[in-house]
Amino acid sequence: MLRFSLRTALLLAATCLLMTAVSTERVVTCDSNNNVQHLSCDFGVISVQAALYGRADNETCSQWITEEQLNDTQCSQNGTTDVLRRRCDGKKVCEINANVIGTSDPCFGVHKYLETIYTCFPAIHVVACERSLAHLFCDVGQVIFVLGADYGRRDQTTCSFRRPERQIQNVDCSRPTSQVADSCNGKNSCTIRANNSVFGDPCRGTYKYLEVSYVCDYPGLAPEEPVETH
C-alpha cells in the first residue's frame, strides 16, 4: 500500500493545483495567556508556510510595551513552524494558544508574538460524526491522497444535533491520526468508520467526529514516504 508524509502531500497538492488561485494569509498574535491565534480557510485547507515565535522587529505587538522588551529583534524559537504544521496542516480551521507554542523562552525579558504565514488551497473536506462512516472517493482513474485527519472535537457546533451540552463542551480534544491515510491512500474510494475502536478515545464522555481533508490525483505522482505521526 502506498504511504505518504503529510507535508509532502501538501506540497504535491499545492503543485498540482498551481493553476488554481491560492491565497496567502499572515496572522500575528501577541503573547498572552488569553490570546488565541485563529487560522481558517473559507475554501480549501490550511498549509502552513512559515511560523515565528519570538520577535523579528520592534513594531509588532509593541503597544504599551517598554523599549527594553522590544530591543531583541533576532529572537525566535526553534521548531515553531513544525509545531504549527503538525497541528494545522490539512484543516479548515485551527486555533492555537501562544502558550502552547512557547514551550521554551528564546529571549528572556522580550515581549514575544506568534506570527504564522499560511496558504489555502482547494481540497475535499469530509466530516463523519462518531459511530458513522466517512466516504472518500475520486473520479475514475484518480486515487485518494489524504492531507490530514483528526478524531475528536474542536468546536461546539459540528456534530452537535440533539447532543446534550456536556457531550460537546470539551473542544480541546483533537487527535491527529495517520490511520485514514494508511487505509485510503492510493485507492479510488474508501470507507472508514469514525469510532473509538478505530482511533482510540481522546476525551471520554465527549461526542467526537472524524475530520478528513484529501485531494484526488493520478497514481504514479505520489511520493513513497511514510506518514508522519505525532
UniProtKB/TrEMBL annotation:
<keyword id="KW-0430">Lectin</keyword>
<dbReference type="Pfam" id="PF02140">
    <property type="entry name" value="SUEL_Lectin"/>
</dbReference>
<dbReference type="InterPro" id="IPR000922">
    <property type="entry name" value="Lectin_gal-bd_dom"/>
</dbReference>
<feature type="signal peptide">
    <location>
        <begin position="1"/>
        <end position="24"/>
    </location>
</feature>
<dbReference type="GO" id="GO:0030246">
    <property type="term" value="F:carbohydrate binding"/>
</dbReference>
<keyword id="KW-0732">Signal</keyword>
<keyword id="KW-0677">Repeat</keyword>
<protein>
    <recommendedName>
        <fullName>SUEL-type lectin domain-containing protein</fullName>
    </recommendedName>
</protein>
<feature type="domain" description="SUEL-type lectin">
    <location>
        <begin position="31"/>
        <end position="121"/>
    </location>
</feature>
<feature type="domain" description="SUEL-type lectin">
    <location>
        <begin position="128"/>
        <end position="217"/>
    </location>
</feature>
<dbReference type="InterPro" id="IPR043159">
    <property type="entry name" value="Lectin_gal-bd_sf"/>
</dbReference>
